[in-house]
Amino acid sequence: MSHLEKQPIRVVVTGAAGQIAYSLLYIIAKGDVFGRDQPLILHLLDIPPMMEVLEGVVMEMADCALPLLHEVVPTADPVVAFHDVSAAFLVGAMPRKQGMERKDLLSANVKIFKVQGEALDKHARKDVKVLVVGNPANTNAIVCSKYAPSIPPENFTAMTRLDHNRARAQIAARANVPVACVSNVIIWGNHSSTQVPDASHAKVKINGNVVSASEAIKDEAWLKKQFIETVQKRGAAVIQARKMSSAMSAATAAADHMRSWFLGTDPDEFVSMGVVSDGSYGSPKGVVFSFPVTISNGKWKIVQDLKIDEFYLDMLTATGKELEEERAEAMAVIEA
Ligand SMILES: NC(=O)c1ccc[n+]([C@@H]2O[C@H](COP(=O)([O-])OP(=O)(O)OC[C@H]3O[C@@H](n4cnc5c(N)ncnc54)[C@H](O)[C@@H]3O)[C@@H](O)[C@H]2O)c1
Ligand SMILES: O=C(O)CC[C@H](O)C(=O)O
C-alpha cells in the first residue's frame, strides 16, 4: 500500500523545542518509527516562552520536504497537543545538569506528568501508546498513568532503550563485532544508576555463529563489573563531557522503543522497556520497572522464566526499592 492510501495518524512530541526533540522529530517524520507508508500529523507541544524557537523547528520541518508529513501542529496548549493522538513521546521536562541531583529533577518534573496524564485521559485515543522519556522516566510514567485512568496502564511505558543500546554497544566493542551482531541484553529496573545491565542472556553473532556474551568475551569479571558500571554511569559521563544531557542517542532510543512497540520485535529478540510491573522476577508490583519484553500486534509481554544468576538478585531488589521510594516521593510532591 502506498502512503497515499493510508490515513494519517496523530503523534505528539512534548518538549518539542528542546534538544532531544530536535533529533527525534526528523527520525519520526521521515518514517523510521511508524513505517515508510504511514502518513503523520505531528503535534508539537512546548511551553509558551519557547513558541518562537518552536516556530523555527516548524520552518525546518517544512524545509525538509518530507512526503509522509501531512501536517505539523505547534502549540503550548495540552488540549490541542493531545487531541486524538495514537502515540505520545513525553520528552518535555528539565534535564539534569552538572551538579544537580536526581531529587532536584523529581520535584521539578513530576507535576508536568500529572497535567499531561489528565490531558491524555480527556483528549487522546484510548489506545494511545505513551513513551515517557523525561526524567525520572519510570516514576513520571506511573504519575501519568495514575491521572489517565481511562487509558489502560499497560499503555504507559518508560524509556530504558537507551541503556539497552548502550549495553549492546559496550558488548559489541569488547567482542569486536558490529553492534547489529549483539541482541537480548537486559536492563532491569530503574533508568538510573541503580539499573541492572545484565548480559547473561545476550547473544553475539561471531563468524556466522550465535554464542553467548560470556563465550564471545571470555572475561566474566569485565561483564560483572566494568560493563555494568559503564552502562549505569553512561548518562552522567555524557553530561560531564558535553555539559548537556544525551540527546542524539536518546532520540534514537525513543524511536527504537516506539518502532518496536508499533511494529513488533524480531523473532527470538527481546528488548528492554519500562512497563508496569506485575511482580515478575520479584519486582514490586505497580511500579514501572524495566524488563525484557517481546512485542507483537502492538502488545508487549514480559519474557518469563529466565534464569537469574544469583549475582544480580540484590541489585534487582535495590533498583525495585528505589522505584518504590521515588513513587512515594512523587506522590508527596504532587499532593503537597
Ligand atoms: N530516559 C532516558 O533515557 C533519557 C535520556 C536522555 C534525557 N532524558 C530526559 O529527557 C528530558 C528532556 O531532555 P532534553 O535534553 O531534550 O531537554 P531540553 O531542556 O533541551 O528540552 C526540554 C524541553 O521541554 C520543554 N518543557 C518543559 N516543560 C514542559 C511542559 N510542561 N510541556 C511541554 N514542554 C515542556 C522545555 O521548554 C524544553 O524545550 C530530560 O528530563 C532528560 O533528563 C531521558
Ligand atoms: O541525568 C542523568 O544522569 C542521565 C540523563 C539521561 O537520562 C541519560 O541517561 O543520558
UniProtKB/TrEMBL annotation:
Gene3D superfamilies: Lactate dehydrogenase/glycoside hydrolase, family 4, C-terminal, NAD(P)-binding Rossmann-like Domain. The active site is at residue 191. Substrate binds at residues 96, 102, 135, 166. The keyword Oxidoreductase applies. Residues 10-156 form the Lactate/malate dehydrogenase N-terminal domain. Keywords: NAD, Oxidoreductase, Tricarboxylic acid cycle. GO terms for molecular function: L-malate dehydrogenase (NAD+) activity. Its EC number is 1.1.1.37. It is an enzyme of class 1 (oxidoreductase). It catalyses: (S)-malate + NAD(+) = oxaloacetate + NADH + H(+). Residues 160-331 form the Lactate/malate dehydrogenase C-terminal domain. InterPro entries: L-lactate/malate_DH, Lactate/malate_DH_C, Lactate/malate_DH_N, Lactate_DH/Glyco_Ohase_4_C, Malate_DH_AS, Malate_DH_NAD-dep_euk, Malate_DH_type2, NAD(P)-bd_dom_sf. The keyword NAD applies. NAD(+) binds at residues 46, 109, 133-135. One of its GO terms (biological process) is malate metabolic process. NCBIfam families: MalateDH-SF1, MDH_euk_cyt, PRK05442.1. This is Malate dehydrogenase. It comes from Pyrocoelia pectoralis.
